[in-house]
Design goal:
Transcription factor Pcc1; three-stranded antiparallel beta sheet; 2 helices; alpha+beta; CTAG/Pcc1; TATA-Binding Protein
């Protein structure tokens, strides 16, 4: 059976922003999923994602799930710059 993979590096303005987004996304990543597996690593001002899925639909669902958290975190940081 063919597996589908996605590798994504997100770069932030500084280490603090990357850590905030990492902490927002990690609870969704650690959940067990039957059709996909996601790994995440925060290094300096970047976050690296690796998603491996059994099918394209599961890959897209995993990607959409954590990207919603990333986008929301970024919007909150932009709206409330003094919060962190």
């Amino acid at each position: 059976m063919q597996k589908y993979s996605l590798y994504l590096n997100l770069h932030f303005q500084n280490k603090k922003e990357a850590e905030i987004v990492y902490r927002a996304v990690i609870p969704d990543i650690v959940k067990k999923h039957r059709r996909s597996c996601t790994e995440i690593e925060c290094k300096h001002s970047s976050i690296r994602f690796k998603v491996v899925a059994l099918d394209a639909v599961a890959l897209r669902a995993s990607f959409n799930s954590f990207m919603k958290h990333v986008a929301l975190s970024k919007r909150i940081m932009e709206k409330f710059p003094n919060i962190y």
